């Protein structure tokens, strides 16, 4: 790595054609500075709650951004050992297309995943945000919730959330100690059968199921790791199956067409489930409808009434701290809901979340309580998704890591912010469509500072820069492999404009690295 930034020279773009097909710092946000970077909202927004505001009920314990419970050095060390033992297993980027191994492990544990109802979520983009909104609404109803999402940004505890808090180090280590003998038994059986031992994600899934049963919880919101049909989370039976938009991603594992990917994802639909789906392409929709019919499940699709849609976003207005939305749900209409997340795609994720909760709590026939729904949505967070880390200049992180996500990010930057210059700090992993990501970001981004994350799978900064140069030209690209230096360059470029902004994107690992930097060292 070098500490000296440089402009890319005359790259031979032919060398990089393969990428075209590849699948607390002190500088926290000052609320007073935010309106300067938002577009005009038009309406009076004085009633829009600031982040953390709720109704008259005492909901101080509903802060999704509460830090991990403080742990003793002994607990922290024990949790670190759990992390190391998970890492020693086959990584989650090489999932095994099987359910038998996970099923055997939970069977030995007494099937903890059957001790609570499950809302199961898959899709290509928006899974984590939608999962977190569903969980927040359910918790507003007074239910004790379990939430499993992936990947984590900073610490593995983030993946297992109980009642709105990441699992503590002590509970993580204790539950791991409880299940480890059974995991080793399954490893032995698999090895004897010439199969791969339990993978990282299989073991983590078993740990999550056991942790939720131990808590205990009233309901689990379960995000698929990859795909659906053979994802280890699919040993659980979801009463509600939720689908966010399906697009091309992980093509080497899931298939090279949207239809093939949708078919794999449709495997989470269990007999007589309630299926809730975001708007889909015709080919994806056909696979989901087929699976719902085969399982005699109900099917609720996002869309207007005249297109037989069961629910939809009626209105989304830009507001300080996010947006105000109105939604027609499956069972009722909900007006002027405060959503503290940016982007039209987050409004649509919220509509899917509302429909999922309606399906779970009242079989889609009973409207949600407007006050409880409002409290749940206004408390929702989605770290790493258009999250503001600093201002002057404004610095955002967004985990968009495929072309579909990049398009949503570019749209949101134009609609929700009034930057006169956007500088992107970009890193991409080697199994992603780097060219597609850059093409979709290019209309919204004036300059790309290309870097690389700490992941072993990160595309080398020079190689990624060559892809960017081939699309936007050398004048709009700077190469800096060191993340801290790349951030500094981006901030300087943004500062040259009257209202410049920086967005860190392209890779979840990059976003995690940057969030960790702000928490540990801070940067100005």
From TrEMBL:
Entry-linked InterPro entries: Folylpolyglutamate_synth, Folylpolyglutamate_synth_CS, Mur-like_cat_sf, Mur_ligase_C, Mur_ligase_C_dom_sf, Mur_ligase_cen
E.C. designation(s): 6.3.2.17
Region (Disordered): 1-78
Keyword annotations: ATP-binding, Ligase, Magnesium, Metal-binding, Nucleotide-binding
Name assigned to this protein: tetrahydrofolate synthase
GO-annotated cellular components: cytoplasm
Coiled coil: none
Source species: Frondihabitans australicus
SUPFAM superfamilies noted in UniProt: MurD-like peptide ligases, catalytic domain, MurD-like peptide ligases, peptide-binding domain
Basic and acidic residues bias spans: 1-10
Top-tier EC class: ligase
Family the UniProt entry places it in: Belongs to the folylpolyglutamate synthase family.
Cofactor: Mg(2+)
Domain Mur ligase central: 121-357
Top-rank lineage group of the source organism: Bacteria
């Amino acid at each position: 790595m070098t500490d000296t930034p440089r402009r890319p020279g005359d790259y031979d773009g032919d060398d990089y054609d393969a990428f075209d097909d590849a699948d607390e710092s002190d500088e926290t946000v000052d609320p007073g500075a935010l309106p300067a970077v938002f577009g005009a909202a038009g309406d009076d927004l004085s009633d829009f709650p600031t982040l953390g505001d709720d109704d008259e009920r005492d909901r101080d314990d509903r802060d999704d951004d509460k830090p991990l419970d403080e742990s003793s050095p002994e607990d922290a060390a024990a949790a670190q050992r759990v992390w190391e033992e998970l890492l020693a297993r086959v990584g989650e980027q090489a999932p095994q297309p099987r359910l038998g191994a996970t099923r055997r492990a939970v069977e030995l544990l007494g099937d903890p995943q059957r001790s609570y109802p499950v809302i199961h979520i898959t899709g290509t983009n928006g899974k984590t945000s939608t999962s977190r909104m569903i969980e927040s609404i359910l918790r507003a109803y007074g239910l004790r919730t379990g939430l499993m999402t992936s990947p984590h940004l900073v610490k593995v505890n983030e993946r297992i959330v109980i009642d709105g808090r990441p699992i503590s180090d002590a509970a993580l280590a204790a539950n791991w100690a409880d299940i480890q003998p059974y995991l080793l038994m399954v490893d032995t059986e698999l090895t004897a059968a010439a199969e791969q031992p339990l993978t990282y994600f299989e073991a983590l899934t078993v740990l999550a199921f056991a942790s939720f049963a131990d808590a205990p919880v009233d309901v689990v919101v379960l995000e698929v790791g990859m795909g659906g049909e053979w994802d280890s989370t699919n040993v659980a039976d979801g009463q509600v199956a939720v689908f966010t938009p399906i697009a091309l991603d992980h093509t080497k594992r899931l298939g090279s067409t949207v239809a093939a990917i949708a078919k794999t994802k449709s495997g989470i639909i269990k007999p007589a489930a309630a299926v809730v789906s975001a708007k889909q392409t015709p080919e994806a929709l056909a696979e989901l409808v087929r699976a719902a019919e085969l399982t005699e499940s109900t099917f609720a699709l996002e869309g207007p009434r005249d297109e037989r849609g069961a629910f939809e976003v009626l209105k989304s207005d830009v507001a300080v701290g996010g947006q105000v939305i109105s939604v027609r749900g499956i069972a009722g209409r909900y007006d002027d809901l405060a959503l503290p997340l940016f982007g039209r795609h987050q409004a649509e994720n919220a509509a899917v979340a509302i429909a999922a909760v309606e399906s779970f709590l009242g079989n889609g026939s009973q409207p949600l309580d407007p006050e409880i729904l409002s409290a749940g949505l206004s408390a929702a967070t989605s770290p790493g998704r258009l999250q503001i880390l600093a201002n002057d200049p404004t610095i955002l992180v967004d985990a968009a890591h495929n072309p579909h996500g990049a398009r949503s990010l570019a749209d949101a930057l134009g609609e929700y912010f009034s930057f006169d210059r956007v500088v992107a700090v970009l890193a991409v992993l080697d199994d992603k469509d780097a060219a597609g990501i850059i093409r979709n970001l290019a209309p919204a981004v004036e300059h790309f500072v290309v870097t690389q994350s700490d992941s072993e799978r990160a595309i080398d900064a020079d190689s990624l820069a060559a892809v960017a140069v081939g699309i936007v030209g050398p004048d709009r690209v700077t190469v800096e492999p060191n993340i801290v230096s790349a951030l500094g360059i981006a901030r300087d470029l943004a500062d040259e404009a009257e209202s410049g902004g920086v967005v860190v994107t392209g890779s979840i690992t990059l976003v995690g690295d940057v969030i960790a930097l702000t928490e540990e060292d801070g940067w100005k």
